[in-house]
Design goal:
about 160 residues; Alpha-Beta Plaits; two-stranded antiparallel ribbon; 4 helices; binds 7,8-dihydro-7,7-dimethyl-6-hydroxypterin
C-alpha cells in the first residue's frame, strides 16, 4: 500500500451541459474507493483559452487524497473522461470533460505522458482562482505560492457561477 498524497485536479468542460459534466465527474471521484475528496472549489465560467470559436468553459478544482500512483491516477482520470464521452479531437478545441492532474503532493514529474505540476498551472486564471479558493497557502513546486501567482494573474473574464 502506498502512502496517501494530496493531489489537485482541474476540471473543465464546454460541451453537453458543462455544469452537469463537472458535477458528474465530481460524483464519480467521490464514489471511488481510491479517492477521498478533501475540498471542491466553486464553479467558474471562463472564456476559452485557445480558439475563440467555441463555447465558454465551466471550470473547477478538486483536492483529493489518494494512494494511487501518479500514472494510475492519470489513467483513472482518463477513464472518467472517456466514460463521459470525451473524444480526443482538435488540440485546444471544445471538450465534454477535461480532468487535468495539476499537482501530486510536492512531486515534480516529467514523463512522456505526464508533467506535474501541470504546464499551464502558473498562468491560467481558470486554474489559479479556483485553486486559491481551496488552497491559498499552497506551494506549487518550482512556481511558488498559489496566492502570489494569483496576484500576478489577470482574471481574464473569469466569473464565479
Ligand atoms: N479554456 C478555458 N477557459 N478553460 C479550460 O478548461 C480550457 N481547457 C483547454 C483549452 C482548450 C486550452 N482552453 C480552455 O484545454
Amino acid at each position: 500500500m502506498n502512502y496517501s498524497v494530496i493531489a489537485y485536479i482541474g476540471l473543465g468542460s464546454n460541451l453537453s451541459n458543462p455544469i452537469a459534466q463537472i458535477n458528474s465527474a465530481r460524483e464519480v471521484l467521490k464514489a471511488s474507493e481510491e479517492v477521498t475528496e478533501i475540498a471542491f472549489s466553486s464553479l467558474y465560467c471562463s472564456p476559452p483559452m485557445g480558439p475563440s470559436d467555441q463555447p465558454n468553459y465551466v471550470n473547477a478544482v478538486i483536492a483529493i487524497s489518494t494512494a494511487l500512483s501518479p500514472l494510475d491516477l492519470l489513467h483513472y482520470l482518463q477513464k472518467i473522461e472517456n466514460n463521459q464521452g470525451r473524444v480526443r479531437a482538435e488540440r485546444w478545441g471544445a471538450r465534454t470533460l477535461d480532468l487535468d492532474l495539476l499537482l501530486y503532493g510536492q512531486q515534480q514529474i516529467s514523463l512522456p505522458d505526464l508533467v506535474v505540476p501541470h504546464v499551464g498551472i502558473s498562468q491560467r486564471a481558470f486554474v489559479l482562482y479556483p485553486l486559491q479558493e481551496i488552497a491559498s497557502d499552497l506551494e506549487i513546486p518550482f512556481f511558488g505560492l498559489v496566492k502570489d501567482l494569483v496576484a500576478l494573474c489577470p482574471a481574464d473574464g473569469l466569473e464565479k457561477l
